[in-house]
Amino acid sequence: MSTWLDVPDEHPYGIDNLPLGSVRDAAGRRFAAARIGDRAVELTHAGQYAPLFADGSLDAFLAAGPVTWRGLRALLTDWLTDDSYRRSVQPLLTPLSELTPVLAFTVADYVDFYASEDHASNVGRIFRPDGEPLTPNWKHLPIGYHGRSGTVVVSGTDVRRPSGQARNPDGSIRFGPSQRLDIEAEVGFVVGAGSAPGRPVPVSAFADHVFGLCLLNDWSARDIQAWEYVPLGPFLGKSFATSVGAWITPLDALAQAWVAPPARDLEPLGYLDDSAVPSGLDLQLEVSLNGTVVSRPPFATMYWTPAQMLAHLTVNGAHARPGDLFASGTVSGPERDQRGSLLELTWNGSEPLALADGTTRGFLQDGDEVAITATAPGPHGPIGIAEVRGRIVAS
């Protein structure tokens, strides 16, 4: 199945992908769109689905649920593969270079998990060198925390260096700009159809509630975080900005990407049992700092899967809402060049990274720009997951 556009089947944003987003044109008009190649297809005239995009966002569409999601995908596929639609669809196509992305949906709640055993073990070794790398609960449940949804921003938005309290080496307390600003390369999952209060979402119902995924950078002020997190966990060290990709890749584009998760030491409790179907995702991330590739983290190594994260998030009766965003936590693999944070890559700043321009980094400096990209296996070639990019500006 090929498109009549000049986009080859193997293009990362070809007919097999069709991620959705929201953009503004040169006149400032906002509209929802699907991406094909380097163009956006406006959804304002998408037949019976058009009213769902009246406000220019994906909000109403996400809430409509899986039948609607698949119906729109089928319509877009027909539009872009059947030459009889060419004349009517061409006026709805706009080059991405003429558009500015905006946050595609209203983030309801934001939860960040800690699902990589390699990442959690590295952090444990850094901060508890004489103890066990993992806490006793880590292999029993997906650990997470609630973040601040109002500070989620779209890719390309500058990130202002946060200020806060931190402890100096001599034990005194200072207030000022973070001196250990970090990245966390993550994958975010976008909930569409909500769930009823008091009704946990089983792992088998993951695709009934989650529309798709995006890349996510959970910017982290390590010095602020280290001082504040005991006993209640991350707060101001995490809540100043979380960047997400502009285009949401539907789960329906990832049929070839599902794999079995890594072998587990402990059998999970029943509500976390995901053995019936492949529930891991074969995503290959790439992290660049000022144009230098510093890491290639593999998502397939994640110990806890997205379905388990959603099941645990709701098992106490908390309900999922349209627009909820939950993140995987830092994606890190077993090799040094697969670590998804500067904390790990530089071993808490003690082993600085060398960049292509001859400079070194322990943590981020003002003016630094971080880009995270990813691909997933597809039927004709890699499926592109839209990049998340951000530049640090002074506090």
TrEMBL record:
* Cofactor(s) demanded: Ca(2+); Mg(2+)
Fetch the Pfam families from UniProt. FAA_hydrolase, FAA_hydrolase_N
Q: What is its EC number?
A: 3.7.1.2
Any GO MF annotation of the entry: fumarylacetoacetase activity
Q: Which UniProt keywords apply?
A: Calcium, Hydrolase, Magnesium, Metal-binding, Phenylalanine catabolism, Tyrosine catabolism
**Pathway assigned to this chain's UniProt record:** Amino-acid degradation; L-phenylalanine degradation; acetoacetate and fumarate from L-phenylalanine: step 6/6
Protein name according to UniProt: fumarylacetoacetase
